Amino acid sequence: MTCEEFQMADLDGGLTAEEGPLQQAARQHLLECPHCAALHENWQVLRTDLHALAQKLGKLKRPLAWNCAFGRNFASNTRP
Ligand SMILES: [Zn+2]
């Protein structure tokens, strides 16, 4: 497997039970290629951060929507 092929393989899909030949080859490449191993590790960290960020945004969603509605009502009530 080449580095390009590795990048096309979806290693985030799941666990070993559902892995096809492509994922197995990708895991093998991960063991043999320090470059892709580093990229994969960075991606795992980034993915975790993105997940945490998404959760934070999800929690912020309601107050932001409420603030917008409040702002609209305030603006419409203060117009002549
Ligand atoms: Zn590689």
Write a structural description.
This protein has 80 residues and is mainly α. Helix 2 crosses helix 3. The protein binds zinc ion. Zinc ion (ZN) binds next to helix 1 and helix 3.
Overall mean pLDDT score?
Answer: 80
Compute the number of structural domains: 1
**Subunit arrangement of the protein:** single chain
Low-confidence stretches: none
Helical element count?
A: 3
Bound molecules: zinc ion
Rounded radius of gyration (Å): 22 Å
The helix/strand order is HHH
In angstroms, what separates the terminal alpha carbons? 70 Å
State the shape. Answer: rod-shaped
Structural class: mainly alpha
Q: Portion of residues in helices?
A: over 70%
How many individual β-strands?
A: 0
Task: Summarize the biggest pleated sheet.
Answer: none
Descriptive tags:
3 helices, 79% helix, single chain, 80 residues, rod-shaped, binds zinc ion, mainly alpha
